[in-house]
UniProtKB/TrEMBL annotation:
SUPFAM superfamilies: CinA-like (SSF142433). Residues 11-166 form the CinA C-terminal domain. This is Nicotinamide-nucleotide amidase. Gene3D superfamilies: CinA-like. Pfam families: CinA. It comes from Blastomonas natatoria.
Length: 167
């Protein structure tokens, strides 16, 4: 099969589609630094319409606030690339969709934009399940090698997000 993406992305996306379809689960993505890459990888797979409910590309802080209901105070206090904001993005994606599971991604793909406390390669993920107590939404920060290219960091982030979508 000819694909826009490397086999590592399409192979994992195929697992996400197959396993979520078998589980009867719909997924939603809230993407910032990946800019829709995770949704694009999923829609590369035949049958993805059974699984992908929708995707939000909320690259700006305003989009996170308007589309997902992330609190401006969270962004001001912790920054857009933070566990708190990823948590808010995942929660908002579930609230604004009919999906069963949401994954949010926010980060710094570079080459600029990093800081001493949040260097290039810092990406935060959150995963929320419908019906789950909001306190149980999981979020974690990963620090990818800052010497990777922007594309490589985005690809690594997409792979990590796809892993979180597996049942």
């Amino acid at each position: 099969m000819t694909s826009l993406f490397p086999a590592s992305l399409t192979d994992l996306a195929a697992r996400v589609v197959a396993e979520n379809a078998a589980a009867g689960r719909k997924v939603v993505l809230a993407e910032s630094c990946t800019g829709g890459l995770v949704c694009a990888a999923i829609t590369e797979i035949p049958g993805s319409s059974e699984v992908l409910e929708r995707g939000f590309v909320t690259y700006s802080n305003e989009a996170k606030i308007e589309s997902l209901g992330v609190s401006a105070e969270l962004i001001d206090t912790f920054g857009a690339v933070s566990v708190a904001v990823a948590w808010g993005m995942a929660r908002g994606a579930l609230q604004h969709s009919d999906a069963d599971v949401a994954v949010a991604i926010t980060g710094i793909a570079g080459p600029g934009g990093g800081s001493e406390t949040k260097p290039v390669g810092t990406v935060v993920f959150a995963c929320a399940l419908r019906g789950q107590n909001e306190n149980d939404i999981s979020a974690e920060q990963k620090n990818f090698d800052p010497s990777l290219s922007r594309s490589e960091i985005r690809q690594e982030a997409a792979l990590a997000a796809l892993e979180l979508l597996l049942p």
